[in-house]
Protein 1
Amino acid sequence: MAKLILSMDNLVLKEIALAKERTTIGRKPHNDIQIDNLAVSGEHAVIVTILQDSFLEDLGSTNGTVVNGQPIKKHFLQNSDIIELGKYKLRYVNEAVTGQAKAADFEKTMVLRPGPVRAATPSPAPPAAAVSPVAAPVAAAAAAGAKNFGDTVAGQSATAPPVAPPKPAPAPQKNAALQLLSGANAGKELDLTKPLTTLGKPGVQVAVITRRPQGFFITHVEGASFPVVNGKTLDAQAHSLNDHDVIELAGVKMEFFLKT
Amino acid sequence: MTLSGALEVASCTDPGMVRSHNEDSIASDGDQGLVVLADGMGGYNAGEVASGMATTVIITELQQLLVKRLPYEIDAHSGQLVAHQLLHEQIAKANTSIYQAAQSQPQYAGMGTTLVVALFYDNKMTVAHIGDSRLYRLRGGELRQVTKDHSLLQEQIDSGVITPQQARQSQNKNLVTRALGIDPIVEAEIHDYDTKPEDIYLLCSDGLCDMVSDDDIGLALQTLSSNLKLCAQHLVQTANDNGGRDNISVILVRVLRDYPAPRSIVGKMMSWFK
């Protein structure tokens, strides 16, 4: 569940869980988060939470609401956003984002069943239907569904080995280009900036160079003959390209090189 | 009726980089102009069971029915297009099978699946979908999402709570508002579209569109259109390179030529003798 950390002058005052659909912020005592400071309006702002997402809305406050230095009217909160109200700061922390393994669990597709379920539904309905008898608003029903779902996952992890969270894909460190060595355009350079760059003549022979986190690869696309790299003819598999490899394709020679 | 030679179909499915199971299921029959993709959900292997049941029921039943029934005709009793009637009936049948299995066997409790089906006939296609598996079309270099997800995010976008750009940042992904096998009755969204030669259609599970931007999908379809199999593999590979957090399935269909329904008596006779 997402939460807010209230602080002033870098001193943490308290943590507030965003458990409700609407969490109000203001100077008056009826607010969920009361900040007794004259710079804060009586009803200053509200945070609307829909499952894992939270939206901050300024309620026409006198001094405004600032997020990450920008005044906002309405804002979709992202993990570690800083909300400023006068001298006070509220940091938004969304654990669905911070807890990696958990995030992966939540990505499993679930069904959201809006509204009450008809009484006619046959009774012995296990987890999913256990949620339904209550005529709950959409968000509440879904939250309960998510909880049940969490149970299923827990049961599953007892038997299945836990899977490692995905590593963030490393961006290719280098840029690369092709220099034509023969043909009418000999000497010209072609930067390989796109994720896919095709080479050759459509209908005759075409190959594609893919730019991937692991580097650059050449793959045959169409035509009877396959590309030749450093004198060796490729097969249908993708071939990893190294600095200064020489490619021959549709009668044209070109050199692949990495740019610094 | 056979469409042999009118469509080229290629597909690829992969568990991704994080999951140990592949809960997606795909099936296709290019000669009958039929492609089906389902993304299952539910504990243990129930997701695979649900998606497998959906694709098997729909493809095998429709394969048999399409031998006798012509999808472009109007049904005399219901006044409906036969294509719509067949899809309605077979989706209902798949829904009932999954729902009953889920009710009767505890290990399958709560299982369900998304579904996207396309049936090609008479220079047209009928698309039926439930949940957040999608169908895209590439025509004239432009990629367009044809189906609209039945999901919380789509509802939020429609009601103006969030923008499509913000939706990509949302933590509420994968919450579908409709699925096959969850309730005794399900309503599929069914629409007809005209097709043109050179069109490319992409059916995919959310494992692709959550991991790969529409721009990159469009670029891949355009660049690799001459090698559909490679294109399907490339899309799956890109989703995996970007993290592959969910199962990834793609089916690509390219329209090679016109395929009008045989209208004249002679044409019908010819099609019987084929």
Note: The CA atoms of residues 122 and 163 of chain A lie 37 Å apart.
Protein 2
Amino acid sequence: MKLIVSSPPHWHSGSSEKIINLDFIIGLMPALIHSLYFFGMHAARVIALCVAVAILSEVVLKKIFKNNIGPFNGSAVYLGILFSMLLPPTSPYWLVIFGVFLSVFIGREIFGGIGSNPFSPVLVGMAILELSWPSHLNVNLSSVNYNLGFDFHSPLTALKSAGADFTSKFSLFELSIGNQVGGIGSVAIIFLFIGGIYLLARKVIRWEIPLFFALGVIGMAAIFRAIDPHSFALPWFHLLTGNVMIGMFFLSTDYSSSPFSNPGKIIFGLGCGVFTVLFRVLSVHEDGVIYAILIMNLFTPMLDKLVSGPKILKTGYFGRGIK
Amino acid sequence: MKKEIKFRQEYDEMMIGEIVLPEHIFLPITGSGDIGDLKVGDRINKYDEIFPGLISPVTGEIKEHLKMFIDGSESDVLKIAPVEDEGDNESDEGSDIPDESNEAILGKLKKSGYYLENIIESECDIVVSAVDTDPLCSVSQQILRENRKDLNKNFDLFKRIFNREKINFAVPEHLFDMVWKLQAQGVNVVKVIPDYPNGIPEILISSAFEKNSLKSPLYLKLEEFLNICNAAVTGRPNFKKVITLSDVNGMKNINVLKGTPLDHILKDSDIRSAGKVITGGPLRGSANFDLNTPVTIETDSVHVQYKKDIVRAVNDQCINCGRCNGHCPVNLSVNLITRYSEFSQFEKCRDMGVENCIECGLCSFYCPAGRSLVQLIRLAKSEINNLEGEIEQ
């Protein structure tokens, strides 16, 4: 009888990268369906282009870097869908191609592929696009030709240019069901929330980062609101607009760019929330989620040092059977 | 069909089966490997003392003196062909506690191969555990169920021999009702949730007895504890060992002679096409390459996997999901340690406390990239040992 030997453990939970990425994609599905319902073929065009470019650039770059391509694990598909969720439906094709390629190239492959990237790859691409072609990513300009039956002012533009009093015309219910101007999927607040709950239930992501992200946004916004209610918006308004919801569940929880220690996760989440509101209130940018998460990604190696260290177990006479 | 994997070590009561005497038994010789005047071809009798501490479990002829790989190290082994002896009267003539002096009892223990004076002298706290260490193993639970009536007598005897005020006793939660009365007679009974890895000695002592602040604890399996008590009463060692044999289809407990080769156990249960034979639990145990490997006091469970169920190592790139850290019972940063180990930065592994790892295997179990994390940790540990050896020289 030929026997097989190997190092323990001889069991495996059966989880794999493929299943994890599939879960992330399923988590984005409600928002994706919402975007297709709203923007129709325009959204489908952007999403399909993003996914195609992501897969293609990953394969090509891995070949160039002589990196093992490995089995298909769906990470490029997830990256593509997530990237498309942040773009306006009218994004020109060259912008999409350029952004996704940069995400895969500078965001991930240049550092050695999945698991090694210090920044969330999607955010690297988005930040480059936003700083280079702000007009193409201006959600107000890009949606002038649509008529979807609600006010076509971006709530964040309104807040920036007209102050907090003007935001009262946006009802929180309308905002939360996705009746606002923004990226293809990033405005589908309630649908992203459902997807996020799915991820939490499947234990794909942990609850610390989303919860403390939300608490950071609410807390910081509440402080500003207390200072001057006329110029600073309600905490709920901040929570339900822009990229906060997609940032909470999908962008900030990227595995390799977020800390793994539990205290680190809490500080990371809080920092993302606080910086988001600071960017919205104090900078020229309307929405600061992308920059807030990128800044907190910088702190990740430091936050990972906050682990409590190994638990020292008691020693004694163990196991070996007394004789 | 994929069978659901459970870490809950709560099993129903089941019979302990017996198997026939094997053709050969393999008797490991601890220590120097010196067997005195005995040589191949000699006949030895049951209860003969081969050397102090080693009692022959059978009557039979020594066939061979060979070296074998047992429990992770090479040791000298005697291959003995046993003969059936009818005149064996293993009746429980003296199950009552003898009114003998401690010296007499210690003499009996020595006759059975137990040299335990240093336990009496030392101050160590004794911990008896009825919690199984590995999943798919119900030996301790089963023995607790079978011996629940005699436990009070045995604990009294043990306390008397070893001059202890108090003995600690860890029992799985679902069997606590059977033994809580022992608390009245100076046994500190502690409930343990029977989930892997709570039963591993290091973890059991550190977490279940956290409040008791034990001094250099001595860990005894319930089976060993009962063997010692039995030897103190009868003056004869127990040559039998209860093991749990499990495969995809189920598990059963059998009582085998120590030294029985795994081959014989598998044949007796009609397992013919095993792909992997694992002793010591599916998460910590070792896969055997030799089916002549004998059952020792350490062998609690034999787990058989068939070719189609065997987990293949994938070893993809780490995606930093942090599941290994989340499940580590000693709170190590497994993802960092294993990557340092992978790229030969062993001193960084040591700085992160890799030597605290108890190799429970949970990190590898949960790793979605299928990385062999335990193997990388073992590599780091052995390299650190080598480094320290070099420094000392």
Note: Chain B has 13 helices and 16 strands.
